[in-house]
């Protein structure tokens, strides 16, 4: 880990915003530094804030950073600059900007490494911005933009997205290790945290358990706390299932035995069940047959209801038709009346025209008469007036004669003109009469033709209706011949049913023929299959026997090896299969052989040692340690003045007790002082053969040693000699010792031979076991068992297949027989249906012919009606033509009468020969004039008075006539009077005739009008009645409209009457049919009721039961005496029921026994449920045997899996033990390595401050201890201590206990078997020396407060060093390459002899110490902290807040002597005066 160069705080606000760091930079340049802060000034805040740059959002003393800092007014920016390398100098800055969000607190993390004088160094990061002449902290957006721009601009600038990535970058790239700083944070949880850190480690065991072992585990890569507990829980089921699986295998075998016994019992019941099932099938067949007949009758009844409903509906339809027919008749009558009304209206209109024409002619003649009279009066008046004017003048006779002739000529002219007009009119009337006569002749011809056609149509109608009646009779005969109940059934419906039935029978026939062919083919194929299956079955029998023979051979070998391992280890006698503990057996045999080999070698060594002593010392009478030297002494004794062994010397002085004070008498030779060198020199010549170092002393020195009461120490170290060196000083003891070692040697030899025998036995067993596993590996055994099961299953399947094929062939034969019966029946039915269909088709043809004829009749009726209407129309036209002809004849008569009347007048006769002269005056004028002329010629004259009177009369007449004409015009203003009509001579007769005609026409018009009123009244009444009938029809029939008829209503009426008769007959027939159906249902109901009594008892209504086959003869006989057949079948069924109940009772007891066995002796819930459910749910022998085979196969598979699982579990257990043991070995190794992290170099030698004594252990014994411990855990957990009242395991408690039992410290105690681990530590003096004396951990905790702090700090720094080196390889390329920040770490340690060792050790370990303290005084600050910052809170400008300010003091002398470049970088040459 690099050292800290600078720490920068910007906008770090705390204590509710009352205290703050605006923008402060603390420069250490990698050296120790002290920050002086008064109590309450924020030392903990400083440390927690600084740690944020390494551990974002880290808590300190349980306080979160967002609770420590006030971030409401802006983000807090914290940065630390680290020194990565000294030459060249390179830095890395780690920054964090903390800010608040809507959901809490967040931060930006920034890392950037750079060289010296980099423009983006820590002091150049824009944590502050200038705004309006003032500096302010950069907000989160601004600083994020800067960080982002740096990542774009500099490739070595990083902005990690997550805190995990941030820590990973710091650790992997810059060796700033998070776990190390987590410990630093922990130790700074309180002031003087080092003491509290070690307060819980008073004893050695507490130190190991609470500090050292957890530290080692945390530092180990790939290990997680609670790993063993997790693995144990993961494999716990595997660990404890071994016994369960073994029990499961035994249970499974018992299940098969019990199941086989149950199946045998069930087989006997199955025979009875088959007989009962056959009786059931027969009874069900009758039950189905009678129910089919019941359903058939119910179907008939249902059809009867439908037919009755249809009949009722037809009655309703007929009622609607009757009502509609009534309405149609009324409408027809209305139509006739409407036609009559139209004709009457035409007659009235025609008569009105005649009346009007007569009136117009009559009044025109009267008007003409008035006009003529007026004209006559006017001319007479003019004539009289002329005469009055001429009165008094006389005319000559000639003139009178001339006037008379002239007058006659004019009258003749008028008469000629009138005759000419009459002639023209007569010719015209003759033409009109001729035209009218032609028309009348034509009308008469048409009338005759229409009458002939109408007669022909009526004749055709009669013929067609006769044919229809004949065809209807033919249809009735066909219905009566074909239909069973013609009154009820319809030919059309039956025809449809016959056609469908024929089609269905045809299709069914094809299907049955195809099915017969398929069945025949299937039978042939089944026969072929049966032959093949029989051959396969023979082969399967042979293969099954072979497989069973191989399996039996394996079982013998297996039992043999089981006997061997059981005799080898009695505890293995409970093993039912070697495979369940195969790994344990192999591992145990391997371990036993290794152990026995080691024990054998140990016994050999002991034997060699024991017999070596015998071989060496058996010939000695006085003990001397080195036998070879003792022999030399015996040889050399005569060559020296004095030469004897130390023991012999003590014996000679009788001071053998002195051997206890000096341990080397047994290897000491005594000679004279002068001969010491000579003896020594001679011994050196034989040094190669010497066994022990030999001490040669003079007799004088021997006397001095013999007279001493205290042991002799050599080089401050006491000698420890073998015990027999002391015990064999006396000869008697020496002899006894030799006898003892001889006996011990024999014992050792015997033990060695026994070990060899055990070793041979183990080796032989291992070899036999290995050969057995090689020959019969579990996979092979499983395969053998699988093959046996497969062969047995194959035989069973083939046997079942053979039975199935035989049964299939029997079923096919039965089906073919049934199909043939059905085919024969269908053929007979097809013939009958074909005959019916032919008659039905003839019936349909007759129906079509009738329909065609009815259509023709309708057309004929329609044509007849048209002809009748035409005839009536022509008759009326003929009548009108006659009237018009009579009118013309009357006019002709009047014209001729008038003409004859004129010619008979005297004046006409008189003027017959007169030459006509064009008249200037009217006839009346001329007649008056002629009369006057006649009088004048006869000389008869009138007086003036007479003329005047006549003039006055003329004038009055003219006035009267004018009034009459006006009156006439007014009265007859609606008539078109002929103003130009001239009044003829016969005018009066014409007027009289016209008046007579007018009266006649008016009389006829009156009669026609009366008829019109009567017809209109009848028409209106009929219209109202029709409307009322239609409304009543709509109300009655749900707003339906009345039916309309295209046929003649008379035909419809006949049809309605026929339909009414037919429906009444049908209803009567339906009533009879209902009586018959009810009678049949009553008889069938008795049979059904009888069967229903036994339906529940015998369950023959079960759809799973297949009905027996009933022959056609039986079906034919059954309806005649249903009850006899049913009673017979039920009696057989009842007798079989009793027999079956007895068998079922036996099977039920067997089932209860089996279930009771399962519930009491089978612990496997799934297997127990499967066995119970299989037995309970399998209700037929086939399913039960299949279940039996499946259980055999399943249990064999389960046993295979169980054996394999047991082997796997055993392997897992062994692997788990190996894993745990390896971990414990690694822990012990790492614990032994920790003291190396506290060693310091003193006087060119490495000296350890701490020493850990971790006992060694035997690996085999350790694994055995672990195995027993795991077994104990499993047994303990199986007890009821860890279950609640409901029997459920309390997982939290179990987990807690497992973690405790499998904790590393607990496991270490298990393998160490209570051999203690020890810790010893040495003091470091203020001269930086390490004492030789070591002290236990408990003793060190009784040192003074400062010494205890010193040794605790040393261990703490060593542990930091250990953790860091485990996490990352440390390259110590700088003097200080580690950093620790401490909150008031000194506590009781203030004296130099206490602090100096700590800082000495820290320097040796490469630590930079940054301490926060309130101690402003003390020599130790000057001695150990060359950089000191004095921090004080001052009032801000507003006076409400406190701002942190600092003053830096550096020890210039230190830097000048040790780090002059740092002095330049620190930029301060002022001599530190704080401590002067």
UniProtKB/TrEMBL annotation:
Stretches assigned to coiled coil: 327-361, 440-467, 544-606, 781-818, 878-905, 930-1032
This protein's record includes keyword Coiled coil: yes
Keywords (A to Z) from UniProt: Coiled coil
The name this protein goes by in its record: Chromosome segregation ATPase
Species name: Paenibacillus pectinilyticus
């Amino acid at each position: 880990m690099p050292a800290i160069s600078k720490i920068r705080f910007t906008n770090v606000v705390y204590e509710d915003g009352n205290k703050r760091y605006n923008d402060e930079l603390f420069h250490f340049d990698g050296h120790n530094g002290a920050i002086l802060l008064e109590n309450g000034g924020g030392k903990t805040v400083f440390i927690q804030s600084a740690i944020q740059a390494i551990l974002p959002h880290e808590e300190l003393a349980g306080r979160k950073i967002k609770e420590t800092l006030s971030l409401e007014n802006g983000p807090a920016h914290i940065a630390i600059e680290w020194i990565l390398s000294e030459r060249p100098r390179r830095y890395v800055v780690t920054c964090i900007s903390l800010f608040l969000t809507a959901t809490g607190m967040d931060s930006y993390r920034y890392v950037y490494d750079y060289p010296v004088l980099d423009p983006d160094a820590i002091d150049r990061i824009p944590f502050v911005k200038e705004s309006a002449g003032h500096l302010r902290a950069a907000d989160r957006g601004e600083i994020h933009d800067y960080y982002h721009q740096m990542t774009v601009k500099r490739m070595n600038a990083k902005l990690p997205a997550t805190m995990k990535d941030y820590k990973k970058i710091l650790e992997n790239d810059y060796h700033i290790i998070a776990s190390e700083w987590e410990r630093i944070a922990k130790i700074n949880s309180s002031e003087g945290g080092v003491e509290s850190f070690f307060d819980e480690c008073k004893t050695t065991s507490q130190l190991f358990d609470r500090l050292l072992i957890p530290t080692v585990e945390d530092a180990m890569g790939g290990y997680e706390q609670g790993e063993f507990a997790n693995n144990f829980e993961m494999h716990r089921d595997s660990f404890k299932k071994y016994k369960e699986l073994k029990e499961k295998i035994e249970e499974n075998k018992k299940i098969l035995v019990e199941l086989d016994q149950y199946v045998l019992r069930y087989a006997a019941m199955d025979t009875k069940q088959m007989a009962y099932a056959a009786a059931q099938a027969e009874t069900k067949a009758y039950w189905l047959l009678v129910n089919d007949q019941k359903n058939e009758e119910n179907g008939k009844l249902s059809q009867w209801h439908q037919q009755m409903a249809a009949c009722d509906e037809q009655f309703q339809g007929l009622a609607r038709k009757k009502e509609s027919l009534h309405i149609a008749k009324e409408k027809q009558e209305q139509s006739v009346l409407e036609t009559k009304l139209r004709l009457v209206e035409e007659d009235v209109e025609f008569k009105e025209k005649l009346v009007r024409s007569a009136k117009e002619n009559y009044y025109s003649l009267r008007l003409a008469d008035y006009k003529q009279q007026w004209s006559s009066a006017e001319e007479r008046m003019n004539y009289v007036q002329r005469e009055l004017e001429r009165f008094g003048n006389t005319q000559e006779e000639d003139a009178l004669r001339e006037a008379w002739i002239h007058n006659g000529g004019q009258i003749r002219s008028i008469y000629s003109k009138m005759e000419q007009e009459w002639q023209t009119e007569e010719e015209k009337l003759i033409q009109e009469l001729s035209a009218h006569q032609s028309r009348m002749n034509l009308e008469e011809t048409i009338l005759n033709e229409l009458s002939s056609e109408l007669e022909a149509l009526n004749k055709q109608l009669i013929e067609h209706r006769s044919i229809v009646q004949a065809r209807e009779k033919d249809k009735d005969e066909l219905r009566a011949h074909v239909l069973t109940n013609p009154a009820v059934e319809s030919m059309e419906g039956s025809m449809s049913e016959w056609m469908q039935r024929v089609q269905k029978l045809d299709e069914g026939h094809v299907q049955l023929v195809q099915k017969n062919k398929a069945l025949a083919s299937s039978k042939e194929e089944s026969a072929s299959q049966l032959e093949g299956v029989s051959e396969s079955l023979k082969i399967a029998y042979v293969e099954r026997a072979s497989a069973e023979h191989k399996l039996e051979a394996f079982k013998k070998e297996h039992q043999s090896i089981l006997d061997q391992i059981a005799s080898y280890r009695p505890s293995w006698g409970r093993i039912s299969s070697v495979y369940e503990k195969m790994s344990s057996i192999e591992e145990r045999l391997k371990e036993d052989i290794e152990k026995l080999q080691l024990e054998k070698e140990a016994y050999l060594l002991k034997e060699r040692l024991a017999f070596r002593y015998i071989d060496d010392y058996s010939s000695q009478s006085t003990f001397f340690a080195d036998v070879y030297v003792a022999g030399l002494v015996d040889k050399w004794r005569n060559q020296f003045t004095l030469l004897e062994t130390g023991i012999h010397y003590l014996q000679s002085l009788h001071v053998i007790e002195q051997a206890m004070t000096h341990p080397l008498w047994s290897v000491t030779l005594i000679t004279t002082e002068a001969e010491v060198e000579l003896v020594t020199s001679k011994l050196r010549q034989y040094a190669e053969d010497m066994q022990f170092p030999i001490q040669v002393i003079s007799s004088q020195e021997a006397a001095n040693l013999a007279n001493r009461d205290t042991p002799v120490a050599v080089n401050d170290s006491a000698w420890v000699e073998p015990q027999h060196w002391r015990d064999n000083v006396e000869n008697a003891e020496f002899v006894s010792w030799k006898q003892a070692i001889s006996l011990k040697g024999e014992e050792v030899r015997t033990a060695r031979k026994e070990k060899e025998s055990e070793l041979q036995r183990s080796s032989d067993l291992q070899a036999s076991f290995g050969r057995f596993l090689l020959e019969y590996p579990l996979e092979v055994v499983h395969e053998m068992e699988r093959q046996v099961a497969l062969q047995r299953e194959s035989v069973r399947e083939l046997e079942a297949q053979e039975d199935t094929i035989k049964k299939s062939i029997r079923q096919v034969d039965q089906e073919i027989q049934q199909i043939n019966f059905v085919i024969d029946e269908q053929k007979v039915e097809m013939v009958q249906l074909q005959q019916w269909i032919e008659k039905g088709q003839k019936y349909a043809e007759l129906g079509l012919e009738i329909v065609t004829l009815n259509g023709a009749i309708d057309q004929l009726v329609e044509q007849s009606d048209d002809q009748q209407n035409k005839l009536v129309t022509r008759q009326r036209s003929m009548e009108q033509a006659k009237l018009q002809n009579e009118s013309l004849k009357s006019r002709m008569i009047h014209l001729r009468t008038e003409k004859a009347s004129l010619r008979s007048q005297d004046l006409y006769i008189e003027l017959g020969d007169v030459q006509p002269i064009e008249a200037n005056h009217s006839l009346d004028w001329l007649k008056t004039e002629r009369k006057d002329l006649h009088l004048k010629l006869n000389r008869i004259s009138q007086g003036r008075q007479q003329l005047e009177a006549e003039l006055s009369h003329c004038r009055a007449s003219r006035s009267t006539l004018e009034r009459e004409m006006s009156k006439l015009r007014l009265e007859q203003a609606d008539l078109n009077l002929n103003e130009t009509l001239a009044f003829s001579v016969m005018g009066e007769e014409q007027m009289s005739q016209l008046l007579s005609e007018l009266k006649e026409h008016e009389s006829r018009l009156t009669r026609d009008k009366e008829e019109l009123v009567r017809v209109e009244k009848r028409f209106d009444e009929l219209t109202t009645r029709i409307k009322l009938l239609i409304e009543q029809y709509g109300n009655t029939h749900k707003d339906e409209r009345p039916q309309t008829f295209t046929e003649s209503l008379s035909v419809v009426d006949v049809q309605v009457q026929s339909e009414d008769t037919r429906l009444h007959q049908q209803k009567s027939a339906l009533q009879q049919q209902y009586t018959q159906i009810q009678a049949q249902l009553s008889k069938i109901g008795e049979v059904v009721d009888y069967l229903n009594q036994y339906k529940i008892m015998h369950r023959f209504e079960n759809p799973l039961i297949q009905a027996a086959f009933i022959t056609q003869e039986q079906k034919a006989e059954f309806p005649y005496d249903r009850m006899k057949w049913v009673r017979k079948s039920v009696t057989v069924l009842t007798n079989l029921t009793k027999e079956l109940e007895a068998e079922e009772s036996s099977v039920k007891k067997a089932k209860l026994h089996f279930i009771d066995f399962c519930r009491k002796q089978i612990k496997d819930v799934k297997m127990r449920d499967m066995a119970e459910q299989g037995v309970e749910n399998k209700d037929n022998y086939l399913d039960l045997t299949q279940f039996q085979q499946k259980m055999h196969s399943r249990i064999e598979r389960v046993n295979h899996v169980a054996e394999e699982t047991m082997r796997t579990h055993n392997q897992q257990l062994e692997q788990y033990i190996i894993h745990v043991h390896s971990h414990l070995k690694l822990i012990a190794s790492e614990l032994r390595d920790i003291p190396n992290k506290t060693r310091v170099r003193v006087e060119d030698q490495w000296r350890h401050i701490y020493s850990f004594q971790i006992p060694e252990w035997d690996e085999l014994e350790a694994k055995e201890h672990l195995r027993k411990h795991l077994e104990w855990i499993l047994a303990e957990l199986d007890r009821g201590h860890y279950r609640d009242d409901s029997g459920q395991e309390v997982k939290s408690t179990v987990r807690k206990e497992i973690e405790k039992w499998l904790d590393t410290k607990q496991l270490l105690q298990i393998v160490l078997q209570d051999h203690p681990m020890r810790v010893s530590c040495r003091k470091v003096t203020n001269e930086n020396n390490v004492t030789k004396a070591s002290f236990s951990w408990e003793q060190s905790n009784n040192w003074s407060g400062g010494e205890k702090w010193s040794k605790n700090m040393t261990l703490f720094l060593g542990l930091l060093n250990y953790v860091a080196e485990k996490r990352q390889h440390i390259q110590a390329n700088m003097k200080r390459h580690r950093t620790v920040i401490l909150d008031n770490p000194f506590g009781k340690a203030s004296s130099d002899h206490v602090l100096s060792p700590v800082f000495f050790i820290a320097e040796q370990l490469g630590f930079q110490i940054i301490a926060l303290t309130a101690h402003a005084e003390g020599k130790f600050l000057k001695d150990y902290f060359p950089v000191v910052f004095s921090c004080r809170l001052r009032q801000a400008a507003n006076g409400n807040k406190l701002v942190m300010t600092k003053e830096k003091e550096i020890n210039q002398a230190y830097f000048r002597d040790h780090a002059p470049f740092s002095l330049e970088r620190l930029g301060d040459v002022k001599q530190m005066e704080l401590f002067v």
